[in-house]
Amino acid sequence: MMGSYSLVNKAVFNVFMQIPFIFELRVFIDWTYTKTSLDVFQWVKLAKCQADLYKAKCINLDYFSKPVGEKIPLWLKYGAGVTSIFAIVLLIIGPMLLFSTFNFVGDSNPVSKSTIDFSLEFIDSQNQMTTYKLFSSSNIIKIQNNITEDEYNDMRFGELYQTRLNSID
User: Where are the domains positioned within the chain?
Assistant: First the structure.
């Protein structure tokens, strides 16, 4: 299986490595019937190193056919580079857009109530907990789906939006 370095051998080896416990079984059988001064744990490490080196050599077959120092074509650099940059930016910005208020896919989830509580909890020598409430406040927010233009102007949303645009520029 590991006698040559081709795509077929690599595929067979990858299937072999994916079968649960077959690699470990092979390693223990090899260790049992091989004259060695290594203990079984060192033998397992050696077998894993050998497997990693075999995978690396199979992966690098394409590099052996490429002349040393040959430049990578621009279409490949830009294709892989732009795709990678787009994927990274999407991973960074995607969740923010998905969960933001600018999300056009989901329904809005307005806040309807807020509550805050502050308290101290003490455990005495008999492991009994005593709680002292220091402060508590709750607020029920009026839910209003549509506002008129006058209410919009009274709340100064337009000014806030304009200020925000000016600060970005």
Answer: 7-65
